[in-house]
Write a structure and sequence with these properties.
The protein contains 22 helices and 23 strands. By secondary structure, it is α/β, with parallel strands linked by helices. The strands form six sheets. Strands 1-2-5-11-12-13-14-17 form an eight-stranded parallel β-barrel, surrounded by four helices.
């Protein structure tokens, strides 16, 4: 099929809806310009990517298979730069993953980058990490090795160092109109009445005063991140073009950062507005026209029932995938309380959603853990009040609570509201760091089992499991960030430390905890990949175990039935289940009946019915 015909056919498929949505937001005369940019990006897309597009068009559920597993990492922390990541691809494949999420790597100002989320040039890689050519070379090699690459796309704002921002500072009205500029605080004051603050402690308010320009600019996140005004069609045109430029470098998954914030409207919370869904739907269609092999991953930090609208509908889909944020936070709540009731409820809600929905499941990521739990349910059923419970969780995971081995640090601690968030690696939050410091072998073994159990639980969930780089070898907190003036004020750097290749070598050493954790996770990934019971289409339900600390997750597909058990208590417990038949534990090979199953402290079982 010729270039022109292929593009025109895809465009025709979506033309009516795309134009209708566009004209809902923007003047019609800009639509032809948008289409011309789409065609230009399609024509420059390299042949190998177009071939991959066609393959994935024929297999639209390619990302829903049970062999999908991901890993997320900072390029500089893992291997120094993009060329270094390319050289380390054999290790990544050894980890059993085929989905590689590289954290923000586009150009951003040193010291005011927000971990790469304050982008100063969407068409340029940070010089210390490499070039766009290096990125394209990496993705090409990844594709040859069966790896898909995910990259963040920060749509909501730019760095104050972006060319548009500089020209806006210089007084060019055209570029001031790409942001939200105001001469007085009258309108910003009206916004502040209804728009919540993201970081009330470290970055209060939603506007920043520019002294030299004598103007206010909207800055929802940090003062150096200026919110883009998507009411301006040129913002939509140019940001869409930036997105397509990234896909043309071979990026397979675009993670849209802070999706709910994209559209601002006076008198609202400036969150989750209908226009956001129009924009995301347009982006979905645009990708299906230009690069149909590309997926959209939405970062929507809300409970599953509220994030569902970002999947769109079967007829008019939006994001291909969304993060399962609430289940992650609830998992750590369960780790601290030893009570699985809320986690069980959370799973029941997620499992009731349509099987077409794909969630990314994870334990840790680059960000802090925010305690966005179901406090109405916790109060009604467990008599837990929000503020005291948040304080308990933070005390527990910072090691202040009696008996806790966890070592974490708080982020954005607000003593008034008690709304601090939590930082730390999986291993350190599970107590391994403190156990090693105290040379307590029993506690260390228990912590290793805890790490493995949490990963086992993540891998049993439907969706795509994503490991945070370093967790596969039990990497500990990087306390050295306190000594770096550029990082010391941001406790998230506690779990953003450099990957320890020296420790990674210990994955080959018998008796090391690195080997035990690495081998266990890899084994579970391999089991997940070969057993149909782990397919997204499988029926999934929880069952009572009559022990508050043990979670039971059942999965069934075709002839296979799996009963997975997870003990969140620090001592041996019994799952008082009564599942008919004989079972084999896939992890250790032991045969047993599906009743009265004993589990050690933080132990697990993956029981497959014979």
């Amino acid at each position: 099929m010729s270039k022109v015909v292929e593009f025109e056919e895809r465009l025709a498929r979506h033309l009516e809806e795309l134009k209708w949505l566009y004209c809902e937001l923007y003047p019609e005369d800009g639509f032809s310009y948008l289409c011309s940019r789409l065609k230009a990006r399609y024509e420059e897309r390299r042949a190998s990517l177009k071939k991959l597009d066609r393959t994935r068009e024929e297999d639209p559920d390619w990302y829903k298979r049970n062999d999908m597993a991901g890993m997320m990492m900072y390029t500089e922390a893992f291997a120094g730069n993009l060329k270094g990541v390319k050289e380390r691809l054999p290790y990544i494949r050894e980890c059993g993953v085929n989905y590689l999420h590289l954290m923000p790597l586009l150009d951003s100002p040193e010291g005011r980058s927000d971990g790469g989320y304050a982008v100063s040039d969407f068409g340029k890689v940070r010089p210390d990490l490499g070039t766009m050519k290096d990125l394209a070379a990496l993705t090409e090699t990844c594709h040859k090795k069966g790896l898909s690459v995910c990259l963040d796309f920060v749509m909501n704002h730019t760095s104050e160092e972006h060319e548009w921002a500089k020209r806006a500072r210089a007084g060019e009205k055209e570029f001031q109109d790409r942001y939200f500029f105001f001469d007085t605080f009258d309108i910003p004051g009206q916004y502040e009445k209804t728009c919540p603050q993201v970081f009330p402690t470290t970055a209060p308010g939603n506007f920043t005063w520019l002294e030299e320009e004598k103007k206010f600019v909207m800055t929802t996140f940090y003062p150096y991140q200026w919110d883009l005004n998507y009411r301006n069609p040129m913002v939509f045109h140019d940001m869409t073009d930036c997105l397509l430029n990234l896909t043309n470098q071979g990026v397979d998954i675009i993670r849209i950062d802070a999706v709910p914030y994209i559209w601002k409207e006076l008198g609202t919370t400036c969150r989750n507005l209908p226009q956001v869904h129009s924009i995301v739907r347009m982006l979905r269609m645009i990708c299906e026209i230009v690069c149909p092999g590309v997926l959209l991953l939405g970062e929507v930090v809300m409970e599953p029932v509220k994030v569902v609208p970002y999947f769109g509908t079967v007829e008019k889909p939006e994001c291909h995938m969304l993060y399962n944020v609430t289940t992650m936070a609830t998992t750590w709540h369960t780790a601290a309380t030893g009570d699985v009731a809320l986690l069980k409820r959370q799973m029941d809600i997620v499992n009731a959603l349509p099987k077409e929905y794909v969630f990314l499941n994870y334990l840790r990521c680059h960000d802090d853990i925010g305690w966005g739990l179901d406090y109405d349910w916790l109060k009604a059923v467990k008599d837990m009040e929000e503020v005291p419970h948040k304080k308990y969780l933070n005390d527990y995971f910072t090691g202040k609570w009696p008996g806790s081995y966890a070592k974490g640090e708080l982020y954005n601690d607000d003593p008034t509201s008690g709304d601090a968030r939590l930082c730390g690696t999986t291993a350190s939050l599970c107590g391994l760091e403190r156990a090693l410091e105290e040379e307590n072998e029993e506690a260390a073994a228990r912590s290793v089992r805890f790490i493995e159990m949490l990963h086992g639980y993540m891998l049993v969930q439907s969706g795509i499991p994503v490991i945070y780089s370093g967790d596969e070898i039990g990497q500990l907190n990087d306390n050295g960030y306190h000594n770096d003036p550029r990082k010391a004020e941001d406790s998230r750097y506690l779990h953003r430390g450099s990957f320890s290749w020296e420790k990674a070598e210990l994955r080959k050493t018998e008796g090391s905890y690195q080997k035990e954790i690495f081998d266990c996770i890899r084994k579970m990934e391999d089991l997940r990949a070969v057993h149909p019971v782990f397919l997204n289409q499988a029926a999934v339900w929880t069952a009572d175990t009559y022990d508050a600390a043990i979670l039971c997750v059942n999965r069934a597909y075709g002839e296979e039935k799996l009963t997975a058990l997870f003990n969140f208590a620090g001592e041996e417990r019994t799952a008082w289940i009564n599942e008919e038949g004989m079972y084999v534990d896939l992890i250790c090979g032991e045969r047993m009946e599906g009743r009265e199953v004993k589990l050690p402290a933080y132990g697990m079982r993956w029981l497959l019915r014979e």
